[in-house]
Structures are given as structure tokens and as C-alpha cells.
Design brief:
The chain is built from 17 helices and 17 strands. By secondary structure, the chain is of the alpha+beta class. The chain has three domains: 184 residues, no CATH class; 120 residues, Alpha-Beta Plaits (2-Layer Sandwich), CATH 3.30.70; 108 residues, Alpha-Beta Plaits (2-Layer Sandwich). Its EC number is 5.4.99.25. Its main location: cytoplasm.
């Protein structure tokens, strides 16, 4: 069978005798043919039995050469010299003779594999594949391809090391060379087997770049404590981390295995490892779609509506927000788990946003539905607009994650246009404010406003008022149209914020000034693209 040669016979016989499944035997012999791993478990066992029987009569490599892509390999140990040829009991294991092939096969057949803990046995069968696909189909996702991920118990790495050291010892005892110290990764072998079955059952191809992920989490409670001896040998590798229930993570175990000396490992763990009583448990079968991003522009017509939910000390101050009025429709249509709202700047609760609106984007997390036509997006936009007279959205469209960066650029780099209704304590005439129209590129020093000091760091920010145009109303009121650098605090420029913004309208007019109303008339960010009506 396969690309096994006579030099592989001791490895095959030792592993089968120790209770290793046929697919793990192929992994330890570094067989990279994907097609071989997909053969039924019983057929592989018969082929290995036949190989052991015939190995003495054949002098070179037997059988099929299947063209497969290059495989990933896992290095099981650092290169070391001088390790004792002892197992954990201090004895040198004996290799069965060639005539004991049937005994080796019988000892492995019907048992849970001592290396993969059954993952390359029961969990490659059609029944498990159907179970996974039933979970996927019941979740009602839209997808055109999938990526399959596997989470393995960390003790598998310990068992792989133990099995390899057992092989290494036997080969050394027999005086046979062992050129390779890496094997086919269990995850890769598993995916070779499972991918074609999942693709056939789901009717879509496996694709490593797919945004739709099907994941399986395996656990093996019976052997959970097998990693614990590593914490004594390599305590620096096992440190508590946030969001981790145990310090014995797969990466921590691998790191410890790279550090521990071979002789120390052999004293604490059987080589090769013993067979467990129970198979792994498939704890979780999960589906997850990559995020979808929707962008547009919104107008806000209410002076009593915050951009995001206004909640202080757990108490909601206002019943709704721009974010909620838009997102509730998107969440329902995309059937997402959650969302993240962002925009090019923000306006205060009492400020309107007029003109062509403010750019915004919403990330929809784990959406079940991902495909929407342009016409469907128009209908969704209309549904949002029909639901409230406080906001309107336009140019609603699907965008990529990278495109959102263009929106964020506008927060500091672009210009914004405002209209402010201003009151003065002393009477004014038209000529008193006319000079404001001639001021260009007015430089401001704005210390962080008192009203936002609780959420913004204390700093002095230099900002520009590019142009101003005044509109006289009466002796105590006028409207001021401003074009400013993004990030300018307009309210503070009007009233001065107790001298924290210099100069300000009050100081320029030499009287007390305050702002009664403020409107954002334009946010000069050329994103997202304008759509035809």
C-alpha cells in the first residue's frame, strides 16, 4: 500500500501494536497522499496488515504514487542528543517480530486510537459528517463556500510527542536510521478526509479564504490531566490569561514541549502512550459568517435625538438614537447577531445634520443573510426612512471593511460646514458683525471643552475657521455660517467656554455671546459613493 517502504515496517508494527489507528500510522510514516487517508478505516487496516506480511519479501517501495499538493508538517521535538532510551518505567520496549503482524493489527482494531483519541476514526465517518451538515443547514446561513476549522484537545500534542519518542527509541534500538522528525499534522489529515464529504453534502466547495466558517471543538475529559506534568517542568509557559478557562492551552503546551528535555519527558509519560477507554467528544459544532458592512449617509432632523444610545449609570435618558433607528432594520434583514456603528464624526443631541448627511457605516456581525441586490438595498433604505420622521438615510449600500477607512479620514482631515443661531447680550447692528465675513483662516486654540472632559483627554487643540458669513436677524440675534476644519468645537467657539477657546465670537464682538441652535450643513467626505435615485 501507499508509499510505505521496508524502513517503515518497524514504525507500522510498533504503532499498531500500541493501539494507533491506521491513519495516524500513515501520519507517523510521513505519507502525504490525501487519497490514502480518505480510504475506509477497515480497508486501511487490511492494507497495513498486508504490508506487514509482505514487507520481508519486498525490497523497495510499493504501490501508488498519488499527486497531491505539498502538506504541512509538525515538528514534534527540538533536535537533541543524548536522551536515554528508556520509557517511563525505565525499560526498553521490545519490537514485535514480523510474524506478529496479526497480533499488532488485532491490538489496534476496535480500540480508540492512542494518539488522535478517535478523531481520525469515528469523526471521519459519514454519520458525523451528516451531523455537522444538519447543524449548518438548520442555522439557515447564506454561503457559497466554507472554511472548516478544528479545535483539538491540547493533550493530543503530548500524545503525539510520546508516540514519536517511542518510535525513535525503537529505531535507535534496532540500529535503523530515522532521518525525519516531523509528521503530517492531525488537523491537516483530518481536513483531507472531511473536506470532500462536507463539500458533497453541503453542495459548495471548501475554500481557505471563505468568510463562512464551520468549526468543531473536540474535548477528551478522560485525558485532560495529561498536560499537567508540563507545568512543573516549564512553569513559565503556563500563565493565566484573560478569557482562558485553563492555562493548559494548545499553544502553551506546544511551547512547553519545545522546552522540556527528552529524558525528563520519558520519566513522566508512557512512550508510546496507552489507549484511552473513550472517544473524544465533539463539544461544539458552530457556524459563523464573516461580517458584512453597510454604509450610507444619514440626516438628523430632531434636536432631541442622540447619535448613539444615551445611557448614564444604567439609566436611558432618551428613548432612541440615530444608531438604533438605522440598525434595527439592518439587524432584522441581515439576521445578524450584533452590530457596530461608526460615523465620520458625531453631532450633539440638540444638533441637526442637514444637507447631504453624515457618512456612517455599520458592521453586521455573523449575519445569516449576506446577499442583497441593489433593488433590495433601496427597499431597505425606504423602510428605514418610512419608520421615523427624525432621520433619513441615503446612498445605502454594501461596502468592504477596507473602504470604511476613507470615512474615518474625514474626521480630522476634511472640512465641515455649520449654521449657528447666535444671541448677544448687547444690542448689535449689521455693521457690528460685518467684519466677520472678511476673516479667513482664523486660528483657534481650543482646550478640551468642559462638557466632554469626562471622556476626552485634557489637551489644547489648534483648529481653523476657514470662512464665516454673517446673517443679521435683529438686535440680539444673528446667524453665522462657518466652514471649519473637522474636529472644531463650534459651540465653544461661540461662547468661549470660560476662556478655554481663544479667540471666540464673544471676544471678537467684545460682548457676551451664546449659541441657541446649531446645524451641520455638510460633512465634506466623498464617501460612500453617491447612488442614483
Amino acid at each position: 500500500m501507499s508509499s510505505l517502504a521496508e524502513k517503515d515496517r518497524p514504525i507500522v508494527q510498533l504503532l499498531l501494536n500500541a493501539g494507533t489507528c491506521p491513519r495516524c500510522v500513515l501520519r507517523f510514516c510521513c505519507v502525504g497522499s490525501q487519497m490514502l487517508y480518505r480510504q475506509p478505516h477497515k480497508d486501511l487496516m487490511k492494507d497495513l496488515q498486508e504490508f506487514l506480511k509482505n514487507s520481508e519479501e519486498k525490497e523497495d517501495t510499493v504501490c501508488l504514487a498519488v499527486a497531491d499538493p505539498p502538506c504541512k508538517r509538525i515538528r514534534l521535538e527540538p533536535r537533541q542528543e543524548g536522551a536515554d532510551d528508556l520509557n517511563h518505567n525505565g525499560a526498553v520496549p521490545q519490537l514485535p517480530s514480523a510474524g506478529d503482524g496479526n497480533i499488532a493489527v488485532e491490538s489496534s482494531a476496535g480500540k480508540v486510537c492512542n494518539v488522535c483519541l478517535g478523531i481520525l476514526q469515528e469523526f471521519c465517518e459519514a454519520d458525523f459528517v451528516k451531523k455537522v451538515c444538519q447543524k449548518v443547514n438548520s442555522a439557515d446561513y447564506q454561503f457559497t463556500s466554507f472554511v472548516f476549522s478544528v479545535s483539538l484537545p491540547p493533550q493530543l500534542s503530548v500524545r503525539e510527542r510520546a508516540a514519536w519518542l517511542g518510535v525513535k527509541q525503537q529505531m535507535r534500538n534496532l540500529g535503523l536510521p530515522l532521518a525525519k522528525d516531523d509528521i503530517i499534522q492531525l488537523k491537516e489529515a483530518y481536513k483531507w478526509i472531511i473536506h470532500p464529504q462536507l463539500s458533497e453534502e453541503l453542495g459548495v466547495p471548501a475554500d481557505g479564504k471563505s468568510l463562512f466558517e464551520v468549526s468543531v471543538v473536540f474535548a477528551h475529559p478522560e485525558t485532560d490531566e495529561e498536560c499537567h506534568f508540563l507545568a512543573t517542568a516549564c512553569p513559565d509557559c503556563f500563565k493565566p490569561a484573560k478569557n482562558k478557562q485553563s492555562v493548559f492551552t494548545r499553544m502553551a503546551v506546544i511551547k512547553a514541549l519545545e522546552k522540556i528535555k527528552e529524558e525528563h519527558f520519558l520519566k513522566h509519560f508512557p512512550c508510546p502512550p496507552s489507549s484511552p477507554k473513550n472517544l473524544c467528544d465533539a463539544l461544539e459544532i458552530q457556524c459563523n459568517n464573516g461580517a458584512v458592512f453597510v454604509a450610507g449617509r444619514y440626516n438628523k432632523y430632531s434636536r432631541n435625538l442622540p447619535q448613539t444610545p444615551w445611557i448614564i449609570d444604567g439609566e436611558r435618558k432618551l428613548e432612541s438614537s440615530v444608531e438604533e433607528l438605522i440598525s434595527e432594520h439592518l439587524m432584522a434583514k441581515f439576521k445578524a447577531d450584533s452590530f457596530n456603528f461608526s460615523s465620520s464624526g458625531r453631532e450633539d443631541v440638540d444638533v441637526r445634520t442637514l444637507g447631504n448627511g453624515r457618512p456612517f457605516a455599520i458592521e453586521l456581525v455573523n449575519p445569516r443573510r449576506i446577499r442583497f441586490s441593489a433593488e433590495e438595498m433601496k427597499r431597505l433604505q425606504q423602510a428605514i426612512n418610512d419608520s421615523s420622521d427624525k432621520i433619513q438615510v441615503r446612498d445605502l449600500q454594501l461596502v468592504t471593511r477596507s473602504a470604511i477607512g476613507r470615512m474615518k479620514e474625514g474626521e480630522e482631515e476634511k472640512t465641515k460646514t455649520y449654521s449657528a443661531l447666535i444671541w448677544t447680550d448687547k444690542a448689535i447692528q449689521r455693521e457690528d458683525i460685518a467684519f466677520l465675513d472678511d476673516i479667513k483662516e482664523l486660528k483657534l486654540d481650543q482646550k478640551t471643552p468642559l462638557r466632554v472632559l469626562h471622556r476626552r483627554p485634557l489637551a489644547v487643540r489648534c483648529r481653523l475657521i476657514h470662512t464665516m458669513k454673517s446673517e443679521y436677524i435683529d438686535e440680539h440675534h444673528f446667524r453665522l455660517h462657518l466652514k471649519t476644519q473637522a474636529g472644531t468645537y463650534i459651540k465653544e467657539f461661540v461662547h468661549g467656554d470660560f476662556g478655554r477657546t481663544k479667540p471666540n465670537i464673544g471676544s471678537l464682538l467684545n460682548r457676551t455671546a451664546d449659541i441657541l441652535e446649531l446645524d451641520v450643513e455638510s460633512v465634506d467626505v466623498d464617501w460612500p459613493p453617491t447612488l442614483a435615485d
